[in-house]
Amino acid sequence: MGALSAPPVIAIDGPTASGKGTVAALVAKALGFHYLDSGALYRLVALASEREGISSTNAYFLSKLAESMPVAFQGGQILLGEEDVSELIRTEAIGLRASEIAVHPELRQALVRLQHGFRQNPGLVADGRDMASVIFPDARLKVFLTASVAARAERRYKQLIAKGFSANMEDLLHDLKQRDARDSNRGSAPLVVAEGAKVLDTSDLSIDQAVKQVIGWYQSLAECAQ
Ligand code: CDP
């Protein structure tokens, strides 16, 4: 499918707890677009592989598992087979394991087709680390959403507490820095500001302001294209 005929994509990448998931989902809702939470796929493989006793260093079995994983996104639910794992995949432990296994190029390759499948009319908002750089390099709008480490740790803290998980600020700061370093320094599809991406620092922005900014950018691009 050529870039001209393919449904438009808004790619939103950024570090952990930058708010990209919330912003991306709201932008998708406002525009009536589909939504891909690519991090959820890595978290699903992290959960499923842990259950199967597959080591986080075993790239071959991890990618085989990813190819055969019975995943479904239904409404707001994420299903693994018949089981609703939407909440189970959100723990810090699964997030850390996700970033450990995400270093393997074989696993990243195994998840490409699944991610491309989300690109459907009228359009897609995709969030992750490599949406603009690797998965949808022809995205119409590329956004790099970030925030200070302190703002991100505070957001993650509130998010975990709201979900009923226990959380400790010091541990969170430590995990966050560890995950930033691993995601940015890995050889395969590291977290980078893609060429042509607009950087949005949300440290002092409300969710609503961030959503409006992204939609504003998208609309002005769409007007230019007419
Ligand atoms: O919610 P948070 O930003 O902490 O993480 P996530 O988006 O759910 O992703 C979990 C982990 O999966 C990240 O730390 C990355 O290591 C990995 N990931 C990735 O490598 N590529 C993506 N496109 C999305 C996530």
Question: How is this fold's topology laid out?
Answer:
Blueprint: E1 9-13, H1 20-31, E2 34-37, H2 38-52, H3 59-68, E3 71-74, E4 77-80, E5 83-84, H4 92-101, H5 105-110, H6 112-116, E6 124-128, H7 131-135, E7 141-146, H8 149-162, H9 169-185, E8 198-201, H10 207-225
Parallel strand pairs: 1-6, 1-7, 2-6, 7-8
Antiparallel strand pairs: 3-4, 4-5
Helix pairs in contact: 1-10, 2-4, 4-9, 8-9
The structure holds cytidine-5'-diphosphate (CDP).
Cytidine-5'-diphosphate binds next to α2, α4 and α9.
Description of the structure:
- By secondary structure, this protein is α/β, with parallel strands linked by helices.
- The protein has a single domain, classed as Rossmann fold, CATH 3.40.50.
- The chain is 50% helix and 15% strand.
- It has 10 helices and 8 strands.
- It has helices spanning 20-31, 38-52, 59-68, 92-101, 105-110, 112-116, 131-135, 149-162, 169-185, 207-225, and strands at 9-13, 34-37, 71-74, 77-80, 83-84, 124-128, 141-146, 198-201.
- The strands form 2 sheets. The chain has a 5-stranded parallel beta sheet with strand order 2-6-1-7-8. Strands 3-4-5 form a 3-stranded antiparallel beta sheet, with helices on one face.
- A hairpin with a 2-residue loop joins β4 and β5 (83-84).
- α1 (20-31) packs across α10 (207-225), α4 (92-101) packs parallel to α9 (169-185) and α8 packs across α9.
- It is globular and about 55 Å long.
- The model has no long low-confidence stretch (mean pLDDT 93).
- Bound molecules: cytidine-5'-diphosphate.
